[in-house]
Write a structure and sequence with these properties.
- The complex is a heterodimer of chains A (280) and B (262).
- With 280 residues, chain A is mostly helical.
- Chain A has a single domain, classed as MetI-like (MetI-like fold, Orthogonal Bundle).
- Chain A contains twelve helices and two strands.
- A two-stranded antiparallel ribbon of chain A has the order 1-2.
- Chain B has 262 residues and is α/β, with parallel strands linked by helices.
- Chain B has a domain of 177 residues: P-loop containing nucleotide triphosphate hydrolases (Rossmann fold).
- Chain B has ten helices and ten strands.
- The longest helix of chain B is centred in the middle third of the chain and has 14 residues.
- Chain B starts with 7 loop residues before the first strand and ends in a 5-residue tail after the last helix.
- In chain B, 45% of the residues are buried.
- The chains are: A mainly alpha (280), B alpha/beta (262).
- Chains A and B meet through helix 7 and helix 8 of A and helix 2, helix 3 and helix 6 of B.
Chain lengths: 280, 262
């Protein structure tokens, strides 16, 4: 009994510190981006023109770059990850499944700079070759991101499928359903929420990914919807410019960081909504 | 509808089954009379569930399982090479120990089987769903809530929903693997009444650890036993249910049904 209180205090301190750290980061970024809103102004901040020397701080090109590369990454990575998860859980013999599982785990452990480097020396020249462009851009970033979200989506989707009661599969098979019918009509719908969470978490990873994207996206500030044109993302623009920015330039970067933070928070909110609906 | 020309819908001939190197069942021979209920009884682990899962080849799902011998359905060996397992499972439906409705609406649960073979006509589906739920004695309780999740029903209702789901594909044989072990006595009563009703049209096999249940519902009973740990399950005695419960020939059967072990 006597030790209850100090231990409680200690644990509470730990919890409070983590919470405080998050709160302070948020407050700091918010505070630093206030000048951007007051001095630069929202219309300028969200325009398509990025030219800090001339006082143009539009982040639209980067915002669109982030959204497009994330969407592209998920478009490739999500089906691949869910497909891998279904294969691991339902199709692969135990030994082969384990081997692939290890492989995917290993993929998660590869530092993003290595994947970016791989993208830079293999992917970008390859895209350049087949599209007759410089090779840098949203397409290259999307593929690199797909590789990076693959382990997250695969692991979580496989876990979701693995936690479904085996009775569901038995019931379907006993009705004369083929393996594919069982997967499509029973298992995937039953695991829908968990798979959705897997994709949203993958999205979180894609939105925040910096290094690998910065290496292949081209780091131009031009607004473009062409996936083979060099452009930038919020993260790549931040990491490229954060060293030398002062004054309004610096504030504009913080405003971009704030937008990034808000995007991530919206995603976390989505996950809470999805999981709450599942419980309810 | 006596498929084998002798009043038997299904026959097991000298069936031996292995999980890897482990022999789970040895030399089982049994006949399942058409439009009758056959009960498989015996203590836990005697292989009765394993045996019933041979009849619709559910054991195929288990890696490393293999069988020797024959199981004849309407004159055809279902264990034969190239036998169509998918169509087998539509002809031999199964109700499981724990009610296992899909996380779908009551309607979609019952329509699952017909939809698997591509039925899209909503009028036909409506008819099948209503008809199957009526045959499963569940229609009156759910006719106003067909869109609600099948998993929102009570355990006993869920089990009857599973029976309706099986009936919807018009099987010839229905296997019940301890269908009442996870539900309350009143629901058990309802399912037993239902089985008596279904006997008019279906050949049924019920695995149960409840001897009273076997005595109440079945026409024929097979008593299975694992003599010693590690040995395979074998049939000790098979015959008319009344005879077996009143005048068993084997001493072990008598000991079991009088409650001396198991």
């Amino acid at each position: 009994m006597a030790r209850e209180k100090p231990v409680r205090m200690l644990l509470m301190t730990c919890a409070s510190l983590s919470f405080l750290a998050i709160l302070l980061i948020f407050l700091f970024i918010f505070k630093e981006s206030i000048p951007a809103i007051t001095r630069i102004g929202i219309p300028n901040l969200f325009s398509a023109a990025w030219n800090p020397d001339k006082g143009q701080f539009g982040m639209l090109a980067f915002l669109v770059g982030t959204l497009l590369s994330t969407a592209g990454g998920l478009l490739i990575g999500a089906p691949l990850g869910i497909g891998t998860a279904v294969f691991l859980d339902q199709v692969a013999p135990a030994r082969m499944g384990n081997l692939i599982r290890r492989g995917v785990e290993l993929l998660a452990g590869i530092p993003s700079v290595v994947i970016g480097w791989f993208g830079l020396i293999i992917l970008v020249p390859f895209i350049a070759g087949i599209t007759n462009s410089a090779g840098y851009g949203i397409a290259a970033a999307s593929i690199v991101l797909a590789v990076m979200v693959l382990p997250t989506i695969t692991a979580l989707a496989a876990e979701t499928l693995g936690s479904l009661p085996p009775e569901l599969k038995e019931a379907s098979v006993a009705m004369g359903a083929t393996r594919w019918q069982t997967i499509r009509k029973v298992l995937l719908p039953a695991g829908r929420e968990g798979i959705l969470v897997a994709v949203v978490l993958g999205m979180g990873r894609a939105i925040g990914e910096t290094m690998a994207v910065q290496m292949v996206v081209g780091n131009s500030s031009q607004f473009t919807l062409n996936p083979f044109q060099p452009t930038g993302t919020l993260t790549s623009n931040l990491v490229t410019n954060m060293g030398e920015a002062v004054g309004n330039f610096r504030a504009a970067l913080f405003a971009q960081a704030l937008v990034l933070l808000i995007l991530s928070m919206v995603l976390i909110l989505c996950i809470r909504l999805i999981t709450r609906r599942k419980e309810g | 509808m006596s498929g084998n020309g002798d009043g038997n819908k299904m026959r097991i001939k000298n069936l031996t089954m292995f999980y890897g190197d482990f022999m789970a069942l040895e030399d089982i021979s049994l006949d399942f009379a058409s439009r009758r209920i056959t009960a498989l009884i015996g203590p836990s682990g005697c292989g009765k569930s394993t045996l019933v899962r041979c009849l619709n080849r559910m054991n195929d799902l288990i890696e490393g399982s293999r069988v020797e011998g024959e199981i004849i359905l309407d004159g055809e060996n279902i264990l034969g090479a190239g036998y169509d397992v998918i169509s087998l499972r539509r002809r031999v439906g199964m109700v499981f120990q724990r009610p296992n409705p899909f996380p779908k609406s009551i309607y979609d649960n019952v329509a699952y089987g017909p939809r698997l073979v591509g039925m899209k006509d909503n009028e036909k589906l409506d008819f099948i769903v209503e008809d199957s739920l009526k045959k499963a004695a569940l229609w009156d309780e759910v006719k106003k809530i067909l869109k609600r999740s099948g998993q929102s029903l009570s355990g006993g209702q869920q089990q009857r929903l599973c029976i309706a789901r099986v009936i919807a594909v018009q099987p010839e044989v229905i296997l019940f693997d301890e269908p009442c072990s996870a539900i309350d006595p009143i629901s058990t009563q309802k399912i037993e009444d239902l089985m008596a009703e279904l006997k008019k049209n279906y050949t049924m096999v019920i695995v149960t650890h409840n001897m009273q249940q076997a005595a109440r519902v079945s026409d024929h009973t097979a008593f299975m036993l694992v003599e010693e740990q590690g040995q395979p399950g074998r049939i000790v005695e098979f015959g008319d249910t009344n005879t077996m419960f009143t005048n068993p020939t084997d001493k072990r059967t008598e000991n079991y049904i009088t409650g001396r072990f198991g």
